[in-house]
Specification:
Length: 104
């Protein structure tokens, strides 16, 4: 079971995939969890929509996604972050290659 905590506007604020796990669980009974949210078997996958961000919601019977626009400044920042990470990965790959290549 997956625990999903919902705020008053039906937006999902927390998801816990092992709420009953002895070590990593929430330490609550099923009844206690149902007071704060819902228990579900699975969570739907969001659709990929260019320039949109999925917001997981609950309508009283099922989980679904609303999609909101991502503003241009945020999109630009995310694209720059991806480019920076790709560059760092390329540099690390080259560095690792030099460590594993025997010198002559």
């Amino acid at each position: 079971m997956i625990f999903v905590k919902i705020n008053p506007d039906n937006t999902i604020v927390n998801v816990h995939y092992q709420p009953f796990n002895e070590k990593h669980g929430l330490g609550m009974t099923e009844e206690e969890l149902r007071i704060e949210g819902i228990l579900v078997d699975s969570i739907p996958e969001p659709e990929e929509q260019e320039g949109k961000r999925p917001i997981l919601k609950y309508n009283g019977t099922e989980l679904y996604y609303d999609y909101e626009d991502v503003n241009e400044d945020e999109m630009t920042a995310l694209k720059q972050q991806v480019a920076d990470q790709e560059q760092a990965l390329a540099e690390l790959t080259m560095y690792i290659a030099t460590l594993t290549t025997p010198s002559v």
